[in-house]
């Protein structure tokens, strides 16, 4: 069997190797891996003013110096005096006090993360936790003068790493990080390789929409957007040299401003709601676009992310690769990615969706908790935009401690949703908004950690329609029956290595009427539950797909193929 890991694990290995080479090659300078633990960040800067006095000035002017000297767990990306001097020269000012205070505050916060992040946990992509400024930082690797370096936001190199202080960790930078203050529209327009794409945006009215500031709705969902851009060269390779060429090929109504015009749809298909970095796209089977009811699929193949690569009727339809080296460009209202070829709106066929119930946007934002072993959090329904229930109880999210005696760490990603005393009046019924599911027919499987004190009969409904089979959360998994026989009985072993502490139940077949997000409801029919209910994954597998493989790596992120 072959174990295929997602982008997070694949690229972590790549960058770890680079970090190792980096440390071994830099023999001219020994990196200080620790310092006196009584020194907090501000005290460390004061003790090393010869190298870092200018960033200390920034902290003092913004009144963050005392804040960074208090107890906590922080990561500071620390520019050297030379780096800050270069910034002052670029801005044409003589001291940090000449920079507008609000700009200086945003700049300072961009260099601080609210948790400790060691370089060994870097991947070739965004750091999971956003900076205090709100924008994510992007890690990568570069080779310069025969030596390897870790980069932050593609331009700043880490010259000293993993300096341990009393309230966190410090990584030294050779260049000051800059806040992304240009909108998607302005970022695209100012790139000389994207002039034709800019013209298409303006001709269709999408330029103005990509120039709007970020807003938040009543559920605290942001208006961030993700744009898949094409360079002039990519257009030229497909025979498009001018806007008129695009209009001739795509504008079937001869009115690009009309949302139904094919050129408008061509552009809208390249715009996705939400802030989706490469690390996010790699684990997103399908995503809605701004073209009504049209989705783009993403697939990780080796270390490449491919758009719309599918096998239909045994024929491989090759996808379009995202250019990793130029992508993950942060704007004030979203993120840009570059594609290597032109692509079209594609007729969609059902694709599997593996819905980890714990992967909620608000839980994901809790970077010190989300998939960090040994952590638990309780959340009210007002704190979750994609989950609803009728009472005032709290939903639990558990990232199980490794070696957990209850085997909960064997769940996929090592985390589960925890429903305490799941019965009438306690989180019942509870409804989850699903990820995007493409129109079609699917078998629905629910996997869970067995608990003899949980609900013995739970009804699952899809968009309000009850499915054919109930779940007994007290039922143990079968580890002896041949797998295909077990499947015929409506059960399977979904994780590998398997354990009878986890079970997976087929609850029915659904006919998804429209591509998009839908409602999945769990309702306890019996009121006898007086213990926790732990749910791992809900799978939506197309009818013609193998229902057993891929399996899920127990306690890990990977998919395991037969």
Average pLDDT metric: 90
The count of helical stretches stands at 14
Q: Describe the largest sheet.
A: 8 strands, mixed
Name the poorly predicted regions: 1-36
Find the count of extended strands (DSSP E, 2+ residues). Answer: 33
Radius of gyration: 25 Å
Q: Per the principal axes of the C-alpha atoms, what is the gross shape?
A: globular
Distance between the termini: 5 Å
**Beta fraction of the residues?**
25-35%
Question: Could you name the key traits of this structure?
Answer:
single chain; alpha+beta; 8-stranded antiparallel sheet; 20% helix
Describe what this molecule looks like in 3D:
The structure is a single chain. The protein is built from 14 helices and 33 strands. The chain is α+β, with helices and mostly antiparallel strands. The strands form six sheets. Strands 8, 9, 10, 11, 12, 15, 16 and 17 form an eight-stranded mixed sheet that branches. Strands 18, 19, 21, 22, 24, 27, 29 and 31 form an eight-stranded antiparallel sheet that branches. A hairpin with a 2-residue loop joins strand 25 and strand 26 (465-466).
């Amino acid at each position: 069997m072959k174990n295929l890991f997602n982008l997070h694990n694949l690229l972590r290995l790549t960058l770890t190797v680079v970090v190792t080479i980096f440390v071994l090659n830099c023999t001219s300078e020994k990196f200080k891996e620790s310092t006196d633990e009584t020194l907090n960040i501000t005290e460390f800067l004061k003790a090393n003013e010869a190298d870092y006095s200018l960033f200390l000035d920034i902290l003092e002017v913004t009144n963050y110096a005392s804040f960074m000297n208090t107890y906590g767990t922080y990561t500071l990306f620390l520019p050297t005096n030379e780096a800050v001097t270069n910034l002052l020269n670029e801005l044409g000012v003589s001291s940090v006090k000449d920079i507008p205070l609000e700009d200086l505050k945003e700049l300072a916060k961009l260099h601080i993360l609210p948790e400790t992040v060691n370089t060994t946990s870097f991947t070739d992509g965004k750091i999971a936790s956003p900076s205090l400024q709100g924008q994510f930082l992007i890690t990568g690797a570069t080779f310069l003068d025969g030596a390897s370096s870790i980069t932050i936001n593609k331009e700043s190199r880490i010259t000293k790493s993993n300096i341990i202080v009393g309230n966190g960790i410090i990584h030294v930078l050779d260049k000051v990080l800059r806040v992304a203050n240009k909108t998607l529209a302005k970022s695209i327009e100012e790139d000389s390789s994207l002039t034709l794409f800019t013209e298409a945006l303006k001709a269709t009215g999408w330029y103005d929409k990509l120039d709007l500031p970020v807003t938040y709705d009543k559920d605290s969902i942001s208006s961030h957007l993700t744009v898949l851009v094409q360079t002039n060269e990519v257009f030229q390779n497909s025979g498009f040299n001018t806007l008129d060429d695009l209009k001739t090929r795509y504008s079937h109504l001869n009115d690009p401003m009309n949302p139904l015009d094919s050129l408008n749809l061509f552009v809208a298909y390249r715009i996705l709601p939400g802030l989706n970095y490469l690390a996010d796209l790699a684990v997103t089977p399908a995503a809605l676009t701004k073209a009504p009811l049209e989705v783009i699929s993403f697939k990780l193949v080796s270390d490449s992310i491919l758009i719309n690569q599918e096998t239909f009727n045994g024929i491989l339809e090759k996808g379009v690769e995202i250019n990793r080296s130029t992508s993950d460009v942060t704007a004030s209202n979203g993120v840009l990615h570059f594609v290597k070829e032109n692509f079209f709106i594609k007729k969609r066929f059902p694709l599997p969706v593996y819905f980890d119930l714990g992967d909620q946007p608000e839980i994901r934002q809790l970077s010190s908790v989300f998939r960090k072993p040994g952590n638990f959090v309780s959340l009210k329904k007002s704190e979750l935009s994609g989950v609803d229930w009728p009472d005032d109880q709290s939903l639990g999210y558990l990232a199980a401690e490794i070696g957990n005696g209850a085997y909960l760490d064997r769940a996929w990603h090592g985390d589960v949703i925890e429903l305490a005393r799941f019965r009438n009046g306690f989180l019942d019924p509870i409804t989850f908004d699903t990820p995007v599911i493409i129109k079609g027919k699917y078998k629905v499987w629910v996997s869970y950690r067995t608990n003899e004190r949980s609900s013995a009969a739970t009804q699952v409904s899809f968009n309000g329609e009850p499915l054919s089979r109930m779940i007994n959360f007290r039922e143990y998994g079968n580890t002896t029956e041949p797998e295909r026989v077990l499947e015929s009985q409506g059960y399977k072993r979904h994780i590998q290595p398997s354990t009878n502490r986890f079970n997976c139940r087929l609850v029915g077949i659904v006919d998804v009427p429209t591509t998009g997000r839908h409602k999945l409801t769990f309702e306890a029919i019996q009121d006898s539950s007086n213990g926790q209910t732990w749910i791992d994954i809900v799978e939506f597998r197309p009818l013609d797909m193998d229902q057993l493989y891929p399996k899920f790596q127990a306690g890990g992120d990977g998919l395991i193929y037969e």
